[in-house]
TrEMBL record:
Name of the protein in its database record: Gamma-glutamyl-gamma-aminobutyrate hydrolase family protein
Stored Pfam families: Peptidase_C26 (PF07722)
Record carries keyword Repeat: no
Key words of the record: Hydrolase
Cellular component terms (Gene Ontology): cytosol
Lineage: Bacteria, Bacillati, Actinomycetota, Actinomycetes, Kitasatosporales
GO BP term, example: polyamine catabolic process
CDD domains found in the cross-reference section: GATase1_2
Molecular-function GO terms, alphabetical: gamma-glutamyl-gamma-aminobutyrate hydrolase activity
Amino acid sequence: MTRPLIAIPARFSATTSALRFAAEVNARALIEAVWRAGGEPASIHPADSEVASRLARFDGVLLPGGGDLAPHRYGATDTHDTVYDVDEVQDAFDLEVARAALDLGLPLLAVCRGLQVVNVALGGTLEQDMGGPEREHRHLVHPVEIRRGSLLEKATGAQKVEASCYHHQRVSSVAAGLAITARAADGTVEGLELPGTSGWFSAVQWHPEDTAHEDPAQQGLFNALVRAARAARAETSPTYERGIQ
């Protein structure tokens, strides 16, 4: 069967030794998790023109982690001194990808920064810095409680998971229409979904790709994305299930 094509916005990298110069990249663990799930991962160039028509050729979308969103994107007038790796081109593209994917009903999985992007794209805000090492969620694996009956629970098959986190920001106000599907013990929003949307969508604040190779609950998120992408393609292309395009 032909693998569903999963679009993953590339991240800018100032230096990449194997390529000698600046590059556009995605985390290998993320790519491998999509591949294990049966998907065909495809990095896409961050250019915020004709985004909807570019995405229409794909079967699903994965919004990955990355640097911080520019605070002005969610109405903040000041910038905390811990905000890092802001890129206006990346921000504009990711925000448009989030809106276009949801508008098109494309299956969408958003990870870490990706969750924040979706929240901001729909009108929510972020807390620019959660505090010092005792409060931030960098280099931490901690338990997350998952809401019963959510798409997140169905994907992971669990009501509690061990989440690999790397973030110093979190959701402040949740965008209208979004529902919280997971929280950390300190109340941090760790999962979101959009009830009533026409396509499958789940967002997590952690990095499931970090442990997906050994944790079926984390791999389950990528499996769920690819299943939804395969089902969506089958609905629009009757010959797809026979591997014909």
